[in-house]
Specification:
It comes from Proteiniborus ethanoligenes. InterPro entries: P-loop_NTPase (IPR027417). This is Shikimate kinase. By secondary structure, this protein is of the alpha/beta class. The protein has one domain: Rossmann fold, CATH 3.40.50. It is 46% helix and 16% strand. It is built from 6 helices and 5 strands. Strands 2-3-1-4-5 form a 5-stranded parallel beta sheet. Strand 2, helix 2 and strand 3 form a beta-alpha-beta unit. The protein is globular and about 40 Å long.
């Protein structure tokens, strides 16, 4: 089974993925983690793409489960041709995202970072998932994880 957790930073993707790791045997990749699969980036991507494709073909959730966390739209575009993945879009209000990101930066959100977050928000705004999770108000991570598993 292949789950694509997508959406901008600070929307809960990693938190839910970590909760799922506590509940079941799952392999989680984020961003360019695939580079550890080979010395050459192109070879690493090919191996990773094959791994994702094979996981997507396997609908038996008792076997291999892979979660790929995507925060950049260009990463999403690279895997959009993989059929049978289950895409979970994570979102939150822009103010919530800024507040969470500011906490990561010890309370200060520099103007360039704020602009980056606004741009990311716009990029993800019209992309839909098979499941859409808004974490603005919903912080029950275990409930979200179990909803995803029930699919």
């Amino acid at each position: 089974m292949l789950y694509i957790f997508m959406g901008q930073s600070c929307t809960g993707k990693s938190t839910v993925a970590n909760k799922l790791k506590e509940l079941i045997d799952v392999e989680v990749f984020a961003g360019k983690d695939y580079l550890r699969l080979a010395k050459n980036e192109n070879e690493a991507w090919r191996l990773f793409y094959d791994k994702l494709s094979n996981a997507a073909l396997n609908k038996d959730s008792s076997k291999e489960i892979v979660i790929y966390l995507i925060t950049e739209k260009k990463q999403f575009n690279k895997i959009s041709s993989i059929e049978d993945s289950y895409k979970v879009k994570f979102t939150a209000s822009l103010d919530t995202i800024k507040s969470r990101f500011a906490q990561r930066m010890h309370g200060k959100l520099p103007q360039p970072v704020e602009k980056m977050l606004e741009k990311q928000y716009e990029e993800w705004e019209n992309i839909k998932g098979d499941m859409n999770v808004d974490t603005t108000e919903n912080n029950d991570i275990e409930k979200i994880a179990r909803l995803i598993l029930d699919v």
